[in-house]
Amino acid sequence: MKRKVSFYVLMLAALISTGCAALVVGAGAGAAGALWYNGKLKDTISAPVPKVYEAMTAGMKDLKIEITGSKADSLEGHVYGRLANGDKVLIDLRSLNSSTTGATIRVGVFGNKELSQRILAAARKHL
Q1: Average per-residue pLDDT in the chain?
Q2: E strands of 1-127, at which residues?
Q3: Which of 13, 79, 95, 126 is most buried, by CB atoms within 10 Å?
């Protein structure tokens, strides 16, 4: 029993030291929510890209975020915006299959977790 515990502690230490801690936490969370990693909020949404694209643009409008550019097709989409303080908002959408979309949101150069979560929550209201 002591050997198993030592093994798991060693494995966890190895993962943390190589920068995989966020992946371990994300894997442990399962489908409990979006994953924050390297300044980006990543989530999987059960809707096709065009529907998620419309929801993201509507959510940004709800939050009064200026949309500076956007485009989408059935496989991918991009929404670009700017906050009042000049920070950029970048949203990338990728089709994972016909009814599921991977979404990545980044606010500012280094990322802003709180604002990224607010944008995602605003978009989810339109799904």
Answers
A1: 84
A2: 35-37, 40-45, 66-72, 76-82, 88-97, 100-107
A3: 79
**Within its chain, how far is the Cα of 59 from the centroid?**
15
Between CA 49 and CA 95 the distance in angstroms is 6
Claim to verify: residue 48 and residue 80 sit in the same structural domain:
yes
Paired tokens of 50 = 């065009």
What φ, ψ does residue 106 adopt, rounded to 5°? -135, 130
- Do residues 80 and 38 share a domain? yes
User: For the chain, percent helix, then strand, then coil, each to nearest 5?
Assistant: 40, 30, 30
Alpha-carbon dihedral angle through residues 73, 78, 79, 85, given to the nearest 10 degrees: -170
Query: pLDDT of 62-76, one tens digit each?
Result: 999 999 999 999 999
**Domain around 10:** 1-30
How far from the centroid of its chain's Cα atoms is residue 95's Cα? 14
For 31-64, what is each residue's pLDDT tens digit?
448 899 999 999 999 999 999 999 999 999 999 9
Q: At which residue do the structure tokens 């515990």 appear? A: 5
